[in-house]
Amino acid sequence: MTSADKNRIKDKAFEYVGMACTFFGLFMLVIFLGDILMTGIEKIDMDFLSNFPSSRARKAGIYPAWTGTLWILGLTAIIAIPIGIAAGIYFEEYAKKSKMANFLEINLANLAGVPSIIYGLLGLQIFVRTLNFGTSLLSGACTLALLILPVIIVSTREALKAVPDSIRQASYGMGANTWQTIWHQVLPASAGGIITGIILAISRAIGETAPLIVVGAATFITNVPDSPMSDYTVLPMQIYSWIGMPDKEFAKSAAAGIIVLLLITFVLNGIAVFLRNRWQKKVKW
Amino acid sequence: MRFGAAFPLYLRCIKLLNMKKIFISALAATALLSSCGGGTSDDAAAGNDSTATLSGTIKIDGSSTVLPITQLVAEDFKEQNNKVDFSVAAGGTGSGFKKFIRKEIDICDASRTIKDSEAHECDSLGIKYQALEIGKDGLSIVVNPQNTWLTSITVAELKMIWGPDAQDKIMKWNQIRKEWPNEPIHLHGAGHESGTFEYFTEAINGKKGACRVDYNASENDNQLVQGVAGDKFAMGFFGLGYYETNKDKLKLVAVDNGAGAILPTDATVMDGTYAPLSRPLFIYISAEAAKRAEVSAFVEFYIAQAPVLVKEAHFIPLTTEQYTAETAKWNEFKKGLK
Prior knowledge:
The structure holds 2 protein chains of 2 kinds.
Chain A lengths: L2 H38 L5 H5 L12 H32 L4 H14 L3 H15 L6 H25 L3 H9 L4 H30 L2 H5 L5 E2 L13 H9 L5 H34 L3
Helix pairs in contact in A: 1-11, 3-6, 3-8, 3-10, 4-6, 5-6, 6-8, 7-8, 8-11, 10-11
Chain B lengths: L8 H37 L10 E7 L4 H14 L3 E5 L4 H9 L5 E4 L5 H9 L4 E15 L8 E3 H8 L23 E5 L4 H11 L10 E3 L2 H9 L4 E6 H5 L6 E6 L4 E2 L3 H5 L7 E9 H4 L2 H20 L7 H18 L1
Parallel strand pairs in B: 1-2, 1-3, 5-9, 6-7, 6-8
Antiparallel strand pairs in B: 3-11, 4-8, 4-9, 4-11, 9-10
């Protein structure tokens, strides 16, 4: 056997190993989704979506949980998106090579790796107590915004990096200043990437439970949030609390809650894909 | 370069979010309307009840063990008083007391009495409070139904199995009693963060948190149930409620504390003969909160409904006399407020 033959065999072998790994992941996902769907689907109806949680499994619903999740997401996005994008632009377009930028960059990378419960403790001290927001939606949203900021900043930077420098040079050549170049050329060209990053970051925020437990999200609540200062609960908290209940019926409720949570995530990801495609089509050089 | 004017993107994002917000507000508004609509009939039904006009938000935090009871009481209370809102969290007894001391909550659910250090802090801040016992919780020792050799166990034997010294030493059933099988013993128990763990280790091993660590620990009791139900050589401990709802898959073990082997039942936990693994459950109410009509009405409702609702939540109610005594304590406390 020549070494070329051996290499060909290795090549094929790697292809099959890779394929096996891919299918293993997908297979597990299908099993998981199938199990959740089979357990939970019977529970999902209008009553489940419009009822308040209850210790009596048959009556238990997720009305405050899913409204709370949407509120938290909206508020988190409003807080995190402008700050995240602006910081990303600063890093990438203005502060490229200063020592200060290096220092900030290292810290940013560190922040992205901090466990989420630590953000919860930070949020408890700063937002709940020092700023006196109490255990409100606003405290929760501010905490989650901090949590996803590094993700948004990093993905904004990546998207900006992907814009060819020639575009910037051409813009400068036409007499535009830095801000004009960013606003009219760089940002529109990188919008697809930025939006994708934002949606992925927000999808992460949806699933977070630990920091919200620390900043005081309720487990059982009898009203739906009507302002940023309301008490609230979110879907993952509801699911977590149901999984620990002795009554078997709650396992079904939990599975149904997971389906709703997955649906929200899929819709968000769908929006991300849609927006990215739309914006990428518009960019033609 | 035709994309010059193409940056209303961010504005669009904002717009999308606003739309979402409007959508949610609309939903919230519909909810409000519908609940108001439902409310009128409730008010009519409860027309002769003087508590129908109560309003406000009652904030509760503390033990996750007590949570299901408090939640049931809150639900039923809410049905009669639809203008009173509840925010009930379950961060654990310790975290509940911390918030209680910071005056962030009205009522603290507790699966133990207040610690001296916590009581001292309350005193120094001038926080007056009343503890009311609302029911009892029994910890069950369970094995697999196929386990034929174990029907009762002494506290000393439990300590031998679960104590810190047992780590890496007590690995087989016949090390505890010679006639038991020469098979490995698989242990399942509460995770280190739970009140159940604190309480079990204190009752059995004599010191809070003192325990071997080479066992399958989980905060999720259903996982422990699964562990014991699927393994002939397993042993586990968790709240009696989890045994009650999984009777067909588990075998309950009687505990001998020197006065003969006693199975945990409603009667033995209620009168305290199932020792040392039964504990009282409490609610702590701050004086400041007790002055509010809705909190006061809620506490009275709590004690009145406890015999039924504690049972429904798979815990063990106190005797009628004990509840009368708790009511007397509460009335005494309220007198002192004026």
